[in-house]
């Protein structure tokens, strides 16, 4: 791979990561879905599948629009800050590792608070002239349970917004 080809791929992958963050912050379900391959999976390190395929990933994005859209400004009550991006490219496959700090607006304290610090590992594949996330593994290193409870996320997500449990790859699908 030439240096220019590598740089073009690297920038395209960075764009995918940043479009994901922007889509999460603006609750743009179409933009959110546009960074994932049709058969993409979002998992936890233990193998739990949070969403698989465009139908489930899109349903999550649309549910987030309902749950987190701020009444004014058209932005979510959460923000996602991406840092420390490392990208490894091998032909038509790549791995992007980066940190995501999620902030949420604490209505009780009337200020933003850290919701979580996480590491994302995205496996990307070249699709035509661009790149898409084929699999994302989210490693939550630290979470603010009070904010998660206030925002009704993670273990505090109301049952009607929880995805159906999916078996890990070891348990079969």
Describe this structure in a few short sentences.
Helix content is 31%, strand content 40%. It is built from 4 helices and 6 strands, in the order ααββαββββα.
Strand content: 35-45%
Determine the number of helices (DSSP H or I, runs of at least 4 residues): 4
The CATH architecture classification is Roll
Task: Round the Cα radius of gyration to an integer and report it.
Answer: 16 Å
| CATH T-level topology | Nuclear Transport Factor 2, Chain: A
First and last CA, distance:
37 Å
Largest sheet entry: 6 strands, mixed
Query: What's the domain count?
Result: 1
Give the tally of β-strands: 6
Low-confidence stretches: none
| Subunit organisation of the chains | single chain
Question: Can you give the helix content as a percent range?
Answer: 25-40%
Structural shape: globular
- H/E topology pattern: HHEEHEEEEH
- SS-based class: alpha+beta
Order of strands in the sheet with most strands:
2-1-6-5-4-3
- Mean pLDDT, all residues: 86
CATH top level assignment:
Alpha Beta
Describe it.
The radius of gyration is 16 Å and the shape is globular. A hairpin with a 4-residue loop joins strand 4 (93-106) and strand 5. The chain has one domain: Nuclear Transport Factor 2, Chain: A, CATH 3.10.450. Strands 2-1-6-5-4-3 form a six-stranded mixed β-sheet. The chain contains four helices and six strands. Helices cover 31% and strands 40% of the residues. The protein is of the alpha+beta class. The model has no long low-confidence stretch (mean pLDDT 86). The N and C termini lie far apart (37 Å).
